[in-house]
């Protein structure tokens, strides 16, 4: 195969892996602090993409400054995504804290449907794919037969920066210590003066804002957003988090890149069967879950005496 | 002697089960009380009610005249109560330092803005916390001080206990509740942990300690006074020697022999 096309595929795989990782981290954070799976998480990606589209388009109507549009799109994605996380966490997940986990699963699954349908019905012509405005410089970087948009490189760098920043926030700050403490042992955390509710809602805001920004990045990368784009992304993010290790931070990042790597590998090795890349990737997920039931990076839980 | 902790008529019901039945309990500043009783007699329930993890059914509790009855764990911790758990409850994946630093997390604001923009202040705070944690850990075990940035899960059982006690002590509590520190440890480890505790006691003479323990040697060695619970009620209060002679205490522990 041509090296340029190979590099193109690998770059695309990196981009997808980063988006999956950003979504999977949220699943792991929510599971960490509350031991719940929030199935509306994928649809928060769509919400973020459409919030960014709205914010950027609104500025675009006023002035023709792509940078300013991008900034407002980003702020809109963070604000709306974070708010969605807080509202879902505060009104649906926390009140069901002592209910069977299946209830939370079902309730958030339905909340996801509401978000999805709200976009489809609330946005003018929302049932059809929407073009996403071009907000980044359109320079091409060419090396032999390999050609890549400068905008794609920027998106990839930004995404890796965001994942690193999240990692530092969780592992190196007092906020992160509060989140880790609540994730490990709520009683100990509360005795240490940590407000359980605020920490949980903050975690939901953080995870949801990450997914939301992932939605913006997908819009910038593919130049198109779709009300149902979050559906499969949510399943992939969940699978990546489980394979990597729910509750850990590095696990879901690893899982996200692994999933994208398998997809890319199928595309490269079996170009004619590339339509089956999701099938193969999910097959690998099933096999890995069988081999590593607690995930690739297992959480070290307190021993039971 | 005025009481630091004063509880009266403290009661906790779980449905029909009375786990704590009108308990009167007082601890003076600098005093160590050995809290004894058969399994299920309400010792840990007492700690859980006192620290706000369980909400009490009725009664009263105050720490140095500050009402702590039915308050949240956060505000009770702020008032100066710290505790350890029977089953060591540490974040095993996290470093020893993070586990200890959790004890002083309440001292500073957690806001995102201060995290982002007050790096200098935070850096100084962090250095001070590291120095304090290191000093505490070294007092118990110099090797523990050297392992400050290793995962807590790598430690031996006795060092994990020490980390838990450091986490409680770093906040400079006025009342320390120790829930069966000898659980899961060898007699030798227990003895060494008690050495640590007695040494620390001398440096912090105002700290009041309530110690739940089954090991009578431990109780004899460290406690000034003993309280015995049975079925959530106090059946004895007094000196160790009187306690082991007490007929009701013997019956509670060994059965009536009928």
UniProtKB/TrEMBL annotation, chain A:
- Places the protein is found: Cell membrane
The record's keywords, sorted A to Z, are: Amino-acid transport, Cell inner membrane, Cell membrane, Membrane, Transmembrane, Transmembrane helix, Transport
Q: Which residues cross the membrane?
A: 12-37, 44-63, 69-94, 139-170, 200-221, 227-246, 253-273, 279-298
- What would be an example GO MF term here? L-isoleucine transmembrane transporter activity
Q: Hey, which family's this protein in?
A: Belongs to the binding-protein-dependent transport system permease family. LivHM subfamily.
Q: Which InterPro entries match?
A: ABC_transp_permease (IPR001851), BCAA_transport_permease (IPR052157)
Membrane topology (UniProt): Multi-pass membrane protein
Q: What is the name listed in the Swiss-Prot or TrEMBL entry for this protein?
A: Branched-chain amino acid ABC transporter permease
A Pfam family that the UniProt record links to this protein: BPD_transp_2
Q: Which domain of life is it from?
A: Bacteria
Q: Which GO terms describe its cellular component?
A: plasma membrane
Q: Give one GO biological process term.
A: L-isoleucine import across plasma membrane
This protein's major location comes to membrane
Signal peptide extent: none
UniProtKB/TrEMBL annotation, chain B:
Keyword hit for ATP-binding:
yes
What SMART domains does the database record attribute to this sequence? AAA (SM00382)
| Gene3D superfamilies from the UniProt entry | P-loop containing nucleotide triphosphate hydrolases
Q: Which residues form the ABC transporter domain?
A: 5-256
GO CC annotation, single? plasma membrane
Q: Which domain of life is it from?
A: Bacteria
Q: Which SUPFAM superfamilies match?
A: P-loop containing nucleoside triphosphate hydrolases (SSF52540)
Q: What is the protein's name according to its record?
A: ABC transporter ATP-binding protein
């Amino acid at each position: 195969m041509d090296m340029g096309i190979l590099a193109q595929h690998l770059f695309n795989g990196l981009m997808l892996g980063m988006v999956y990782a950003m979504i999977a981290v949220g699943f792991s954070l929510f599971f960490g602090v509350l031991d719940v799976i929030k199935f509306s998480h994928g649809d928060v990606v769509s919400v973020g993409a459409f919030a960014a589209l709205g914010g950027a388009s609104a500025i675009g109507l006023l002035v023709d400054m792509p940078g300013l549009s991008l900034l407002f799109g980003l702020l809109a994605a963070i604000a709306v995504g974070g708010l969605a996380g807080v509202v879902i966490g505060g009104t649906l997940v926390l009140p069901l804290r002592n209910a069977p986990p299946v209830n939370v699963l079902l309730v958030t699954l339905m909340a996801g449907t509401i978000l999805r349908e709200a976009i489809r019905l609330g946005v003018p012509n929302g049932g059809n794919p929407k073009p996403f405005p071009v907000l980044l410089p359109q320079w091409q970087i060419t090396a032999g037969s390999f050609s890549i948009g400068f905008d794609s490189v920027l998106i990839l760098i930004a995404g890796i920066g965001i994942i690193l920043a999240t990692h530092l926030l969780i592992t190196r700050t007092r906020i992160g210590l509060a989140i880790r403490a609540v994730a490990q042992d709520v009683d100990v955390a509360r005795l240490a003066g940590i407000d359980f509710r605020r920490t949980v809602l903050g975690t939901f805001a953080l995870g949801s804002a990450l997914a939301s920004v992932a939605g913006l990045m997908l819009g910038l990368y593919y130049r198109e957003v779709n009300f149902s784009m979050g559906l499969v992304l949510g399943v992939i993010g969940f699978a990546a988090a489980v394979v990597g290790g729910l509750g850990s931070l590095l696990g879901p990042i690893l899982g996200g890149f692994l999933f994208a790597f398998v997809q890319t590998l199928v595309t490269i090795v079996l170009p004619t069967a590339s339509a089956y890349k999701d099938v193969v990737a999910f097959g690998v997920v099933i096999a890995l879950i069988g081999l590593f039931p607690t995930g690739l990076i297992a959480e070290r839980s307190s021993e039971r005496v | 002697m005025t009481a630091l902790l004063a509880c009266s008529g403290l009661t906790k019901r779980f449905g029909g089960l009375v786990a704590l039945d009108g308990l009167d309990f007082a601890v003076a500043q600098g005093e160590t009380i050995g809290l004894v009783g058969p399994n299920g007699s309400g010792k840990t329930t007492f700690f859980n009610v006192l620290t706000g993890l369980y909400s009490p059914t009725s009664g009263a509790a105050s720490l140095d005249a500050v009402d702590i009855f039915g308050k949240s764990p956060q505000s009770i911790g702020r008032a100066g109560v710290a505790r350890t758990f029977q089953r060591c409850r540490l974040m095993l994946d996290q470093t020893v330092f993070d586990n200890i630093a959790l004890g002083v997390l309440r001292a500073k604001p957690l806001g995102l803005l201060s995290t982002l923009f007050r790096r200098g202040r935070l850096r100084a705070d962090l250095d001070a916390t590291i120095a304090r944690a290191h000093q505490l850990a070294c007092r118990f075990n110099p090797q523990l001080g050297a392992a400050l940035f290793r995962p807590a899960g790598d430690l031996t059982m006795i060092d994990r206990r020490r980390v838990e006690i450091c986490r409680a002590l770093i906040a400079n509590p006025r009342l320390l509740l120790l829930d069966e520190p000898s659980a899961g440890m060898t007699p030798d480890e227990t003895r060494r942990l008690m050495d640590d505790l007695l040494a620390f006691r001398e440096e912090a003479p105002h700290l009041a300690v309530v110690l739940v323990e089954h090991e009578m040697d431990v109780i004899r060695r460290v406690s000034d006074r003993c309280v015995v619970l049975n079925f959530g009620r106090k059946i004895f209060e007094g000196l160790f020697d009187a306690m082991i002679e007490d007929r009701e205490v013997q019956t509670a522990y060994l059965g009536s022999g009928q």
